[in-house]
Amino acid sequence: MAEPLLSQRYIIEEKHEIEDITSNNLIQELMHNLPGYKNGFIRVKPSGFVFISETQIHLERIRKFEVRDDDIWICTFPKCGTTWTQELIWCLMNNFDFKTANSVNLDDRMVFFEYCTILDEVFDFSTDTIQQAADMPSPRIIKTHLPFQMLPDQIRTREKTPKIVHVYRNSRDVCVSHYHHWKILKGFSGGFDLWAKLFLEGLGGYYGPFWKHVESYYCSQYDNIFFVKYEDMKKDLRSTIVAASNFIGCNKFSENEILQLEHHLSFTNFQNTPSLNKQHLVNLCDKVGCSNQNEGAVFVRKGIVGDWKNYFRHDMSENFRQRDKELSDVTGIVMEDV
Fold first, then answer.
1. Which residues pair with 76 in a beta bridge?
2. Which tens digit of pLDDT belongs to each residue from 63-103?
3. In b/e form, how buried is each residue of 212-231, taking b as 16+ CB within 10 angstroms?
4. Among 137, 152, 158, 267, which residue has the fewest nearby CB atoms (within 10 Å)?
């Protein structure tokens, strides 16, 4: 059974405790269907989030990272609209510089804070992304998939109060998108039914459980945070742009700039723009042999609401609805059957 939602005081622990969960039967199934990640998986306690074994050697550095008050942290569970939101915030913070946005990869314009901590031996990756974030000039925009309890201590203690943008999405659409992500970039070969079971139990790769992750931000009582719902962005992108600009204090723009940004953030433009579509990452994974996808695989896949209906059986959907209800009871978040 998956661990219950947190519903707890957000204590700043003296240190994280590590539980090796490699022998868990579902983790064994996951590892059997992956070309990498042979060193196993851990659960970080007391918060209960799952990571690969290699992550534990970086946890203290993450905790002690020097935060700045003028930072903007984009914090999401994977596949909730992270890349979309990153580009929105970057454009607002950089005076609608579409020339740079269209010519320089988003990954080179914004650091993925803990990226170096979630890679195993399959990748020859030498960049220390935590140090890279530390070396960035202000104001920094930092992407992370860490839950609130695992952010640097200075954020959790409110010693520093950077702006946080948190994005969440319908749990079943996240599961489907996450499944394809792990097929394309990690080589998962176990099929969707197994992935849905892993995801439900908080064992689908790392950063899970999803519901506990979302709850960690909604129940954090952190004041300087802007909550974004993926489905709302799809429904009314302009309203999200305006609200985000007000939150970060970049609200001087023309009607033409807004129109240009709406086009820039459109799914068609995202899918066809090399600086945004992360095709270089897909190609790299294919090159090193950690992809399980047919030729023509893409990172920006569909970008729609409700694709879960093409994957979920009724019984699977009911299990996810129950988790959604438990989250709603704690946070008030409602995940519609869209």
1. 167
2. 999 999 999 999 999 999 999 999 999 999 999 999 999 89
3. bbbbbbbbbebeebbbbbbb
4. 137
Taking only the tens place, the pLDDT of each residue in 217-266 is 999 999 999 999 999 999 999 999 999 999 999 878 889 999 999 998 98
Encoding tokens for residue 251? 């609200």
Rounded Cα–Cα distance for residues 307 and 131 (Å): 38
Report helix, strand and coil shares of the chain as percent, to nearest 5. 45, 10, 45
Going by C-alpha positions, the residue among 135, 162, 131 that lies closest to residue 68 is: 162
- State how far the Cα of 178 lies from the Cα of 176, in Å rounded to an integer: 5
Beta strands in the chain (DSSP E): 17-20, 41-45, 49-52, 72-76, 111-112, 141-144, 163-168, 225-229
Distance CA 222, CA 249 (A): 18
Q: With beta carbons less than 8 A apart as the criterion, state whether 333 and 214 touch.
A: yes
Indicate the pTM of the whole model: 0.90
3-state secondary structure of 287: helix
Tokens of 104: 């320089």
